[in-house]
Amino acid sequence: MFELDLDAFGRLVLTLPEGLVVVGVTPVRCFPFTAPQERVSLCDEAGREVHCIEDMDELAVPTRELLEQELARREFIPVIRRLIDIQPASEPTTWQVETDRGLTEFKLTSEDHVRRLGAHGALIADAQGVRYRILDIARLDAHGRRLMARYL
Fold first, then answer.
1. Cα–Cα distance between 116 and 140 in angstroms, integer?
2. What is the reported pTM?
3. CA–CA dist 140, 99 (Å, integer)
4. Could you say which of 80, 128, 136, 148 has the lowest number of CB atoms within 10 Å?
5. Contact at 8 Å (CB) between 152 and 126?
6. Which residues contact 105 (CB under 8 A, 6 or more apart)?
7. Distance CA 147, CA 152 (A)
8. Is the dihedral of CA 35, 41, 42, 46 positive or negative?
């Protein structure tokens, strides 16, 4: 079994069963929205996969907690709870939203940056590359659903 630890500089260190030690690995979910606990790739500093975790639920609790902390630091995807306004009608548009982290405003440069995510959700990438997620469009209020209708 492999081991994960943090070194004195806060870098994630992977020790493989054969004794190979890789400093500075980065965890990356292979299927972040459809199977977040399955297939987590540990990549070296050059971005090459050095180990793949098939199922995080099978890890020892301390290892799983460390991995989840590292993934949370890397993944920042606010969830949109309410669409307040989208201005103007042509691109680029300015979106005013309420997320699980509070009120915010962002610019959307293209309608192509709004994508369906499963049967009910959506993923929106703003002009700065920040991704926002709507878990269920049907749960938005009527105003928000009307605003989203143009994009989906």
1. 15
2. 0.67
3. 12
4. 128
5. no
6. 94, 95, 96, 97
7. 10
8. negative
